[in-house]
């Protein structure tokens, strides 16, 4: 008998409603057991991660999908803040953006991104990439939030 796969809690930090819908659709169409949360900018992402204000009762995500180009506080700043915060740095953070700029790739890895994925233009490719990310982090890797020492909830 196969062990049940735990629910994957994902924070999608994305200002484009169309991209959010594509991520949600890719997860839903493949019966992926996930708890997706969405915020539209870096200010709300940080409030979510710190459980501030309206985000006081949200779960700690197992994975963050982070766009770079957003209003108020952009993804570059959010990534740097997350990876410099002892309480947040262990959350795998995937930069998921339209930018294929070498400087964005390099600066994201310098800021300790766990991966950098350029969003495909083709809808089928977009869905495939989202599913690959979800399957890798949902099935293959060991996530800090699933360790028995209870360091993450």
Automatic annotation (TrEMBL):
<protein>
    <submittedName>
        <fullName>Two-component system response regulator</fullName>
    </submittedName>
</protein>
<feature type="modified residue" description="4-aspartylphosphate">
    <location>
        <position position="67"/>
    </location>
</feature>
<keyword id="KW-0597">Phosphoprotein</keyword>
<dbReference type="InterPro" id="IPR052893">
    <property type="entry name" value="TCS_response_regulator"/>
</dbReference>
<dbReference type="InterPro" id="IPR001789">
    <property type="entry name" value="Sig_transdc_resp-reg_receiver"/>
</dbReference>
<dbReference type="InterPro" id="IPR011006">
    <property type="entry name" value="CheY-like_superfamily"/>
</dbReference>
<dbReference type="Pfam" id="PF00072">
    <property type="entry name" value="Response_reg"/>
</dbReference>
<dbReference type="GO" id="GO:0000160">
    <property type="term" value="P:phosphorelay signal transduction system"/>
</dbReference>
<feature type="domain" description="Response regulatory">
    <location>
        <begin position="9"/>
        <end position="134"/>
    </location>
</feature>
